[in-house]
Structure formats: C-alpha cells, structure tokens
Amino acid sequence: MIATHLSPAPKQYRFPSLLHSTSHNHHLPVHLSLPRRHRNFAKPTAAAQDLLASVESVASAASVLAAIVLVHESGHFLAAASRGIHVSQFSIGFGPTLARFRLSPVEYALRAIPLGGYVGFPDDDSESGFAPNDLNLLHNRPIPDRLLVVSAGVAANLAFAFLIVYAQLRSPSASPCKANKPSPIPRLWPRQTSSPASSPWPLRPPSWPPTCSSYESGHFLAAASQGIHVSQFSIGFGPTLVRFCLGPVEYALRAIPLDGYVGFPDDDPESGFAPNDPDLLCNRPVPDHLLVVSAGVAANLAFAFLVVYEQALTIVLRRWLGHGCGAHGGRRASDEDVM
C-alpha cells in the first residue's frame, strides 16, 4: 500500500532537466553561451573608456595650444602697451565668440577654436577716433618700436619654453617616473642609475657646450647681421685646442667649456680701424647695442624652445601611434583585455 502510493509520485511531478534533457517538446529555451553575453556587455564599457581617453587627449592638447597662443599674443600686447602704442583688440582663438568684454579702449575676446589669436591695432580703422598722424599709432612709430612689437610674440614663447625647462630642472619633486605613467614633461637628463646619490640630480651629461655655443653664436650673428666689426669668437677658456682665422675674425675652441666670448676691436689700437669707424660697436646707435647684447639670451631661449618642442612632439607622436603608456602597460585595449 505504501509503496503503491509513493512510486508514481516521482514520475508525475518530475521536471525535465534543462541541461541534460533529450526531449524537444518542452517550451523552455536553453541558453548555454553565458560568457559570450558577458563579452557583449563589456565591449561598450571599453569603447566608452577609449572615447573618454580620446576626449581627454584632445582637451589637453587644446589647452596646451591655447596657453601657447595666449603667451604669444600677450607678448605682442605687452610690447605695444609698454611703448604706449594704441591697441584696439586682444583675442584668443577664432570662430564663435565664447566671452567678450571691454576694458578702456581694448576689446578682449575668447573664441571657440584655440588655433590662433590676434592683437588688433586701430591704424586702418576710420572709426577709431584717432587722427591719422597720431604718434601712438603703430605705423607712425619708429622702426625699433615696430620690430619690438612684431618680435615680442616669438620672444614670449621662447621665454615661456625657457621657464618650463628651468622649472623642470630645478624642481626637487622631479622623482623618477612610475611605471606606465611618464612625466608630462620628459626629463632632459636622466638620473644616474648605477650608483645612487643623495642629490636629486647626481650626474648629468655636460650641458655647457651647447648653451655656451648658442649664447656666443647669438652675439656673433647679431653683430654680423648689422655689419659690426668682430675680431674674436671663442668657446670656452683655458688652453687653446683649436684656433684658426677666417677673414678678420679669429675662431678658437678652448679646453674648459664653461664660458666663451665674442671680441670686438673697439679698444684695440692694432686692429686697423679708425676710432670713428661707424661699424665699430661703440659708434653704433643704441638699438644695435641692445640687439647685440640681448642676442645671446635670445639664442639660448630659442635653444630651450627647440628642446621642449622636440620632446613634446615625441610625446604627441607616441600617443598618436598608440605607443603611450596607459592602463594596459602601453598596449591598446583589445578583446582579450575586455574578455
């Protein structure tokens, strides 16, 4: 009796197995590809991360470019303001205007596309209210003032590059880069790894020869471009390693590359030049004096700018080519990483 009532129950209430049933008449579908469904949910997340990384790269590049444009146009603007020259507009970027305001006679504007900028002068604006013969209009100023305004933008960019390099070299927090996270501004001289020292910058390759040569070359080329007599061009001091003459100039390379000089025959009675020779430096006008004196610093700033430009270009090319350090140790995200 007991066996008779209990034996049919398992057959009557047994449910078919979804994984091992051989019957094709049940209406419950069987889905076994759970890992594939999981991959389909993971891929949009990876795509969103790649999109976010691309947006961040574009935003950072645009901000750097906007900073360069701001420094460049500020150089023009400050040079004109320092000489009392009338300025009507100062704009960063071009295209649609994001912000605009006026302070005194100058209109300031921030535009949407940070690929350029300009400083406007009211010289050709008939509605500016200035007389055509106003001495403070740019076209009525002497040539040195116009050259100052034109070249101030490049000079400001060179000074900006020099400050970046100087801050990078002087910063005590410039610790070695962590794995897969390179420094935004690469170190120009790597640390010594063979024997650590207490100083944050134990040893560096000698940097004096290129900076000394660029500094003195700036003086020399500025003088030569103005037709000023030059008698000597020397890199370093101490014992002479190489010496030769080309025309009236004696060139020398000395043993200790920590200094250099450009010699002028102004006070040399044996030079053969008359004391009132107009091509002697002492007889040239003040702008020529300033040009020769400042050309050394300008050459070093140009050298620093080229170094920073080369390093920045290397970083950009590495990112564009997909070799930058990222979340996957320098590799691009792939299906294997997502899965």
Q: Into which percentage range does the β-strand content fall?
A: 15-25%
Please report the total strand number as a whole number.
4
**Helix vs. strand class:** alpha+beta
Question: Order of strands side by side in the largest beta sheet?
Answer: 1-2
Helical residue percent? 40-55%
**Spans of at least 5 consecutive residues with low confidence:** 1-34, 37-42, 174-209, 323-339
Largest β sheet strand count, sense and barrel closure: 2 strands, antiparallel
State the distance separating the first and last CA atoms: 58 Å
Mean pLDDT across all amino acids = 71
Element pattern in H and E:
HHHEEHHEEHH
Shape: flat
Q: C-alpha Rg, in Å?
A: 35 Å
Task: Report the total helices.
Answer: 7
Q: Which labels suit this protein?
A:
single chain, 339 residues, alpha+beta, two-stranded antiparallel ribbon, 7 helices, 43% helix, 18% strand, flat, disordered N terminus
Written overview of the protein:
It is a single chain. With 339 residues, this protein is α+β, with helices and mostly antiparallel strands. Among the domains are: 46-141, no CATH class; 206-333, no CATH class. It contains seven helices and four strands; from the N terminus they run H-H-H-E-E-H-H-E-E-H-H. The chain has a two-stranded antiparallel sheet. It has a two-stranded antiparallel ribbon with strand order 3-4. Strand 3 and strand 4 (249-263) form a beta hairpin. It is flat, with a radius of gyration of 35 Å. It starts with a helix and ends with a helix. It comes from Zea mays (Maize). The chain crosses the membrane at residues 147-169, 290-309. It is a multi-pass membrane protein. InterPro entries: Pept_M50_Zn, Peptidase_M50. Keywords: Hydrolase, Membrane, Metalloprotease, Protease, Transmembrane, Transmembrane helix, Zinc.
